[in-house]
Amino acid sequence: MMPTDAPNGRVDIATDAEAVAQRAASLIAEKVRGSSGPFVIALSGGSTPKRLYQILASDYADLPWDRMQLVFGDERFVPADDSSSNYRMVSEALLSKVDVPSANVHPMPTDGTPADAALRYQGILQRIHGSDTLQPGKPLFDIVLLGLGENGHTASLFPGTDVLNERKAWVGSCTPLDAPHDRLTLTYPAIQSSRLVMFLVAGAGKAEIVAKVRGGDAAQPSTQIRTDGELLWLLDKAAAGERDHAG
Fold this sequence. Notes:
Elements: E1 4-5, E2 10-14, H1 17-33, E3 39-43, H2 47-59, E4 68-72, E5 74-76, H3 86-95, H4 114-129, E6 141-146, E7 171-174, E8 183-186, H5 188-192, E9 194-201, H6 207-214, E10 226-227, E11 230-236
Helix pairs in contact: 1-2, 2-3
């Protein structure tokens, strides 16, 4: 089976950003409830994922959170209580409101050096996975949530950074050319080891970059995303380039 790539992923268009978040929450709940055993989700930062987490906390608190392992797709190299921290955002929107064991939540470390922290986080993922290597037929993640930046980045796979060339490590570090803070990020091979990758994208400001990535523009880091499972674009009408024509 050939991996699914970002340009060839399935598209699901919702009315607006709220509908995108609602749809994502429903899909996650469906996948979790249809599974048995541990369920590993790589979480994303951003405004649409934040709303998704709020919906999960309010409408899906009855999910089997004790079976879920929550990891992070990327993180800014800042303290956990910093306003820029993805972990802080997820904690406030979701983790503080659902009955998920603390042992099942795995924030990316942001102490020491970024390179060392990336190695340590890979070790955490290897323990969750039960293997030091990625193996066909044994996905690392059940779901990977991704956003899309106007510069074509996803997770913290930024244009012009060396981490785009990483093909062995599961976690890398980078210093973006056009964004603040050093970053930790899942790499392409780690993201590929997944059952489902979901891009959550909303707003007219994203329509141009969605079209570029969906069109296969190789200069955009998000175009290189692959998954061994299903790839789904959850877009609102504005991000999809659709315009309402009012009379």
